[in-house]
C-alpha cells in the first residue's frame, strides 16, 4: 500500500503533471531534494520530512509497475468520469464474456486465470451480474470443472455449491442439478477426505449430509463416519453411525469388515449385531 495514498498526490509532491515522462520526474526530484535538503534548511525537521516525502514519491513514480498501480489507485480516489466509467464497464464485460468463450473452447486454464484477475481487480465481482441465469450456471460449472482438473478442490466446491444453491432456490433443478450434486459429493467424499485426519473428515461428511441424498447415499456417508470414529477410538459412536447406515440400507456393502473391527471393543446391538458370528 502506498503511504498516505488518500491524502498525498505524488505528482503534486514532485511538482510535475500526471502524464510526466521519466526524465521530467527525475529532474524535478533532483531539484527538490537540493531545495529541501536539511543541510540547506538549518536541519529543520520540516525539511527532513519533506525530503522523505519527495523520495517516496520518486520511488513510486520512477518504477513503471509501481506507478501503474499507483495511477489506478489514484484514479479510484479521484473518481472516473462518465466516459471513463463506461469504457471500464465495457472492458470488464468483454473480459467476462471472454472467460465463458475460453471455457467453451476448451481453454480452461486461460479462462480460470482471467477469472482470477477479474476477482482480484473488480471490487464485489459477481458473475451473475454479467450473464443470464443459464450462462451463469454454465460458466460457474465449467470454472468448477477446471478447478477440479487442477486439483483446486476447495475452489471447485465454491463454484459447484454456488451453482447448486442458485438452481435449488430458482426451482430449476432439471438443469445440471444432479450432475453438480454428484461432483460435490465426489470432492468431499473422495478427494478431501483422502489425505486428512478422521476429525476433519467428519466435518466433510457432516457437510455432505446437508445436501438432498437418497437413502443409499446417506447410508454410505454414515458408514464412512463410522469408520472415522473407529480411527478415533470412539467405538460407541462408530456403532451408532453404523446402525443408522444399516437402517437406511440393510444390504450395505462393507459392513462385515467394520463389525469385525468393532466387536473386540464393544458389544454390538441393533442391526449390526447380525454381522457378528455366533
CA radius of gyration = 30 Å
Number of helices: 13
* Average pLDDT number: 84
Sequence stretches where pLDDT stays below 50 over 5 or more residues = 1-7
CATH topology type of the domain at 195-278: Serine Threonine Protein Phosphatase 5, Tetratricopeptide repeat
Measure the end-to-end span: 72 Å
The main pleated sheet reads as: none
Percent helix, as a range, is 55-70%
Provide the CATH architecture of the domain at 195-278: Alpha Horseshoe
Assembly state: single chain
The strand count comes to 0
CATH superfamily of the domain at 195-278: Tetratricopeptide repeat domain
What proportion of the residues form beta strands (DSSP E)? under 5%
Keywords:
0% strand, Helix Hairpins, single chain, mainly alpha, Serine Threonine Protein Phosphatase 5, Tetratricopeptide repeat, disordered N terminus, 278 residues, elongated
List the helices and strands and how they pair.
Elements: H1 10-14, H2 22-36, H3 45-61, H4 64-78, H5 82-104, H6 108-121, H7 133-149, H8 153-169, H9 177-192, H10 198-208, H11 215-232, H12 235-248, H13 255-262
Helix pairs in contact: 2-3, 5-6, 5-7, 6-7, 7-8, 8-9, 9-10, 10-11, 11-12, 11-13, 12-13
Structure write-up:
- The chain has 278 residues and is an all-alpha fold.
- Among the domains are: 10-79, Orthogonal Bundle (Helix Hairpins); 195-278, Tetratricopeptide repeat domain (Serine Threonine Protein Phosphatase 5, Tetratricopeptide repeat), CATH 1.25.40.10.
- The chain has helices at residues 10-14, 22-36, 45-61, 64-78, 82-104, 108-121, 133-149, 153-169, 177-192, 198-208, 215-232, 235-248, 255-262.
- Helix 8 (153-169) runs antiparallel to helix 9 (177-192) and helix 12 packs antiparallel against helix 13.
- The longest helix is centred in the middle third of the chain and has 23 residues, at 82-104.
